[in-house]
Amino acid sequence: MSLLTIDDLTVTFGDFTALDHVTLSLDEGDLLFLIGPNGAGKTTLIDTITGRTRPTSGTLTFDGRPLHGMAEHHIVRAGIGRTFQTSVVFEHLTVADNVDLAASHHLRPWQLLRRRRALPEAVTHILERVGLTERLHDRAGTLSHGQRQWLEIAMLLAQRPRLLLLDEPVAGMNTDERTRTGELLTEIATDHTIIVIEHDMDFLRRYAHQVVVLHEGAVLTRGDLATVQSDPRVQEVYLGRTPSEATT
Ligand SMILES: Nc1ncnc2c1ncn2[C@@H]1O[C@H](COP(=O)(O)OP(=O)(O)O)[C@@H](O)[C@H]1O
Ligand SMILES: [Mg+2]
Counting ligands in written order, which one lies closest to the CA of residue 214? Predict the structure, then answer.
């Protein structure tokens, strides 16, 4: 059984069709790269999975449960976490406190009061996983751009999602940071299901096995990178350019 099933999903904003009869499914453990020109509907798809945007028609099912009509925080609790194109970290809090706060999100007030003063083991472990142990006590505002993205991924992991939706996590990163992020995603994918919006060709070549191309709100094609790249429709969409040149 697939973990996420999107069936005939359409989202319109007034007269504008942002998602046009999208059908897509994800199995547990999939690491899926979602690409497409600017305005293709990639972020709208994530917004709709997470309940931020309501479907106009069609259905979304997660782990056998319908998602449409569910409140955003219930969808988070059901096991779906996402990052945003803009940052959500608390700059004046330490790296560890940001992750701790994200981890405490689901706790009731009495549970929060009873918590030990020491950092929970889960938080320490997550910081290790994303490579931020050395910055644990530093304010989040002092992190480099790449480290801040890893902190956001850490905050997401702290909420223990089964499905992670990452919106352009390597945008603005340098080569080393991209490599580190690619390795991190590959590692996280060993025990999570992930959709990553990304269109840097070099990054895709190194880390993408499954790619879905979205164009004008519709799924153009799905397959491994070589198959997708050799698809004439994909080449046409990108006007003969590589996806990384055709987008921001
Ligand atoms: N809340 C909204 N209201 C109206 N139009 C929107 C809204 N959200 C997105 N759009 C439009 O839908 C299209 C797809 O946007 P988006 O999903 O952000 O594209 P992508 O992430 O692929 O670049 C764009 O033309 C955008 O202007
Ligand atoms: Mg977007």
Answer: 1
